[in-house]
Amino acid sequence: MNAEIATEFDTEGVQKNFMFVNRKAPYGSIYALEALEMVLISAAFEQNAVIAFIDDGVYQIVKGQDTKAAGMKNFSPTFGVIEMEKEDADEDPDIDMVWRIVVERDSMEQRGLTAEDFSIAVEVLDSAELADLMNAQDVVLSA
Amino acid sequence: MNAEIATEFDTEGVQKNFMFVNRKAPYGSIYALEALEMVLISAAFEQNAVIAFIDDGVYQIVKGQDTKAAGMKNFSPTFGVIEMEKEDADEDPDIDMVWRIVVERDSMEQRGLTAEDFSIAVEVLDSAELADLMNAQDVVLSA
Amino acid sequence: MKFGVMVNEGPFTHQASDTAYRFTKAAVEGGHQVPRVFFYFDGVNNGNKLSEPQADDRNLVKLWGELAAAHGIDLVICVAAALRRGMKDEILAEGFRISGLGQLVELGLATDRTVVFGD
Amino acid sequence: MKFGVMVNEGPFTHQASDTAYRFTKAAVEGGHQVPRVFFYFDGVNNGNKLSEPQADDRNLVKLWGELAAAHGIDLVICVAAALRRGMKDEILAEGFRISGLGQLVELGLATDRTVVFGD
Amino acid sequence: MKGERKMLHTVNKSPYERNTLESCLRLAKAGSAILLIEDGVYAAIAGSAAADQVAARTDDFTFHVLGPDIEARGLADKQLIDGVAVVDYTGFVELVAEYDAVQSWL
Amino acid sequence: MKGERKMLHTVNKSPYERNTLESCLRLAKAGSAILLIEDGVYAAIAGSAAADQVAARTDDFTFHVLGPDIEARGLADKQLIDGVAVVDYTGFVELVAEYDAVQSWL
Questions:
Q1: What's the complex ipTM?
Q2: What pTM was estimated for this model as a whole?
Q3: Helices and strands (DSSP H and E) totals, chain E
């Protein structure tokens, strides 16, 4: 006998802290691109979100990406959309969510990068600050 | 206009030196299992083969693998088949191929393993010996 | 307790689907609920009904379908990830359905814990 | 010169198929021959005709088929790897065929160089 | 009043192949639990080069390792680092229930 | 008489994420060529922690890096390590033809 399967859940009014952990470089694999689609959808649900770039994930937001010769889709403009979502959340009193876009300082510096190299505005956090922030999350989605 | 596609090649009498490079641990991914199937098929073609275990690849031949609780297929007995193929090649004058099963010493020792831990007999080579052997190959298949 | 499970890799290539399956099975058999498993990235390939493993190997597509039927688990394949990979209705195994990424966020909201399995 | 090409990963998930495609294209356009491309491991998914990338993205399944038709390249999907992953005749794209792993060894013997692309 | 939140971190990659464990150890907050699964279990074997990474942090973290993955890899007879507890899938589920949230280091 | 055989090695993984480059540098024979592709190109960028690994071995190996992969990753304006030559896909093909065999470090 099969159990009944519910396909709809009542999540009315529920708000949680989501963290999206990006640790992989772009283009070598699809994780960066598809993870970005997860971030975007969470905006539609007005959820709090921390979009974190750690380890090789910091390479995802390096500006000036040009994929023409490699023949792949350049998805870096989508980070600009994320940045706008964050600005809207910050400025529009009708949008009830807090977004933060953060980069781990050690990961950035080890790769010879500075915040100037990024296409979007980010908060650069020390490892201890990032550890505290991670520890405060309800749902951590990684890829 | 489409170009003609040949699906059969004349390889009669051609013999080459194949190396199979195994650098990944078993079970965490399928590479070890499917790479083993490549090795087996090369025996049917009577090709010279070096089956090399480097880095985490040395874990592939650790004895005593028991996948019952993990629910996966235990493919480690197939390494015994590889060992038999090698023995046949060594001993049977009608089989015209040379097989070597080699392990890099540094990879083995770094992981706290000795040749006693392996389910099959292997040659343990220094990095420099392995580098020379690699350099002598015609076809290097890795995964 | 309610667990949401996310699977990021296809069957066989990485152990993620195996571990997620064993975890989910232990959870529901231990009295917990897993209302939904969400398949994303190459995880969408877990719903391919054409999958035909060797006779002595496990059939993950079938195992997921059976577990879902027995314990009322909603197996959701992400449509965007699936389209790209050619994982369409024509080859969708029993027990799975294709839907949007919003179902993942919803799962995070509806459960007490979200656990991700990937490469 | 004759090159044999092996592709170990599916389209999109890893760059392997893209790089292999660009390499193969440059080779044949540079006057070399690539008699066969052999798809193994998740590489078998490159032959899935149901793959439907977004409109602004490349369609690797189609690109491989077109390159093969233009330059006489034999695109071979490994049957054992394909069965496990549900990559069967029903969903096989034009220009690809399913055959045994022996075709890989044969390719190594018939060409001057073998180049592997993977994860 | 609710006590301090504590997380469960899972690591499924070999410490020799990838930087995953290293990043987890750098960014997990002291007091967290770390569960080694899949190829991550190699870090729990005493006498290997990676063992030191784990052994050095047993004061900061509670370490667990998934037994079925140890057995699959032929390591059931090997000695584990002191302070690493073996769990099965049911134990994995209990850890998830016990801690406030889970982070999978992929 | 034929000269000594020389191989082309390709590395497609980030030196920060995996041990691939390190293994290639340990096991490739001096005189080989090494081509950095895909996420492997990060090892060619001057001023990063991984650059030293490559810079220290420019006497032993001829290093090349795939330009399209540099551009895709937004690194076209970054300085490369001295002695690393940029090639396109045609250059990749030429390297394969020039050397006696190819080993892909996956």
A1: 0.97
A2: 0.98
A3: 4, 5
